[in-house]
Amino acid sequence: MSAEVSRPLEGVTVVDLGQIYNAPYATLLLALAGAEVIKVEPLDGELSRTRRRISLGSGMAFYMLNSNKRCVTLNLKDERGKELLRELADRADVLVENFRPGVMDRLGIGAEALRARNPRLIYAAGSGYGQTGRYKDLPAMDLAVQAMSGAIASTGHPDEGPVKAGPALSDFLGGIHLYGAIVTALFQQARSGRGAVLDVAMLDSVYPSLMSNAGPFVGAAIEGGPPPPERTGNRQGGLAESPYNVYPTKDGHIAVICVTDQHWVGLTEAMGRPELLTDPVYSTKPARIRAMDAVDELVSAWTSVQPTDEVFDLLRRAGVVCAPARSLGEVIADPYFRERGMIVDVDVPGVGPVPLIHTPLYFSDRDRLPLDPAHELGQDNDAVFGDLLGHPAEVLGTYRAAGVIS
Amino acid sequence: MSAEVSRPLEGVTVVDLGQIYNAPYATLLLALAGAEVIKVEPLDGELSRTRRRISLGSGMAFYMLNSNKRCVTLNLKDERGKELLRELADRADVLVENFRPGVMDRLGIGAEALRARNPRLIYAAGSGYGQTGRYKDLPAMDLAVQAMSGAIASTGHPDEGPVKAGPALSDFLGGIHLYGAIVTALFQQARSGRGAVLDVAMLDSVYPSLMSNAGPFVGAAIEGGPPPPERTGNRQGGLAESPYNVYPTKDGHIAVICVTDQHWVGLTEAMGRPELLTDPVYSTKPARIRAMDAVDELVSAWTSVQPTDEVFDLLRRAGVVCAPARSLGEVIADPYFRERGMIVDVDVPGVGPVPLIHTPLYFSDRDRLPLDPAHELGQDNDAVFGDLLGHPAEVLGTYRAAGVIS
């Protein structure tokens, strides 16, 4: 194990106009891979930063998503502010934004304008519904894209109303796909000097994750059969596995899944029910799928009288795929994330100890980059506009007085 | 608009041992970015391919995830099969696998062994719980990681049991993070010739998406207040926005979100309720958050007596963030995806017309790569083991007879 720190993107400069979750997650991962990320905010801070005014809890996401970035402010409605942005983009490899499509063009600092000055620039736009197509002008947020994508239709119990997925999957699937597109373009740029215009939509990014539900739907359409159920509670999306559910325990819930016959053997052993193996109702996987209700009742009757930990231990030892449905408190406190360096508890000035996130893109042959907690609004204005772009202090003073920077 | 086809990863060779969703999604995106992906399957096919034996619907995901790959078979329990894999890895830039941690090492073809022969190889492992840490030996599937990560705890209505997110978010968040790590390592390799060992866990990849729920939890812990609710139905994870919900309509459901006062003004106009603007119960966002139940009743009373389309039109024109909760059938048929090239309807031989997925990583300054539907099991054995690795036909004949390849 080398003590060298992992910085695969060292030397890459990113101008980051991202806000809320989507683009800021992409640029967090760029920063944690060693890129220099310059986060550009309006003079009163991006929406995610200002949520701290509502409550500390609402503002916490800002800290989690903005480590290791330099923070500057710019008034992009002022011509001098636009010119500073152009100067930054001239020196950058990548510019990232997730405004509504068309906003940057209307400001005169869109892909075409910036790439006319710097043709090797990668202009990366994240959005809900893309820069083209019938929904481009529709405002997007995580919940809206969950509705449009079918994520809501596919979540929940069949006999209850549709419900959203708890995780902000549209924002984060969008954000990590945006990261993927940017790094792909950086690879191309490194080999050819060529820039790119990237258009990553949350709706496009969510669609593949509906595979388990979309597949049976498409299959039924081809075969002319009835469409499968929209949502299946905690059962497999295509109702094609059994046992596959989240079962109640004495003190919680546990997910149990048998994909192979071997898993089923393990489960019957753990349950002390060897006779089920020769019972024709349960002896094959197609039979267990047909008897899904009865299978779920059997498993449920066994899990519900024991504590989660005991069921988990027994099934783990029997080689059955299983996991407790843990509370968020258990998850956040889990030493697992600290062992892997995925969560680092950092004393954030003026806040307290915050479990900051590191990158899931783990290069295990190197050490992780140390975390630098989110900077204050405009903290790096002098360093970036003065030292990097070369504007004298008196000019920046004028700009401050005029509300171009803060 | 150039007619040139986008192949940012042209010239990159990937050996793909991926199975089911996680790694195959990563390698699909590599293939659709122009890399040459050689998919290596056991002689009876990987699990996702064999699901077609259960039903066409269950097997459909295989077609959606394996376009544009060359398909070969290898018996990795046979020494001659291992040697063929080593020869492939010697010529490759990347090897991807998502077996249980330790499997490849036990076969003698793990990261260390392969990188001793080809130090510039990027060895990329996807898994549920990482190659290190306390859960590495725990079998993982999407539902299990949803349970372990808190995704299940955060999904559903507060007064009902926890329910999984419908989309396979652990598999796909894991897969796209794996893609991101691989391309990041390719960028490093292009500049320095250096390889990498990548360890991308689904559990790590899901955690950031719980930001809206984790933030308030951490905030409450710091301030010493009570923890926020584990799940909030269709309300915002931190209960920090209102209106923010999925409301019933005459014929379905619609997501409506007001983040700014301007959204609220638009909503009251669409509802024909201008008097709400001056009512102190609703006039500010903090007030609307306090009156969340009453706000939801007001909006619900208005939406529930109209068809979804009408509510959607009215709110869209009023600039309110909104979206119908669409069924999977509506989503799959949506022309939006065809306009953007994200879904391409391809007549797959022996199956019928399948809405295959293209990459969400859209380089909008180039044309998309044409889709080549998933190859048959072992279809490219002669081309890869013969033409590429240079083994004569008679040797491959012996290997076939001995069950080393098919």
UniProtKB/TrEMBL annotation, chains A, B:
Record's keyword annotation contains Transferase: yes
Keyword Transferase listed: yes
Keywords from the named record: Transferase
Pfam families named among the record's database cross-references: CoA_transf_3 (PF02515)
Domain of life: Bacteria
InterPro entries to which the protein is assigned, alphabetical: CoA-transferase_III_domain, CoA-Trfase_fam_III, CoA-Trfase_III_dom3_sf, CoA-Trfase_III_dom_1_sf
Region Disordered, residue ranges: 221-241
Gene3D superfamilies: Crotonobetainyl-coa:carnitine coa-transferase, domain 1, formyl-coa transferase, domain 3
Protein name per Swiss-Prot or TrEMBL: CoA transferase
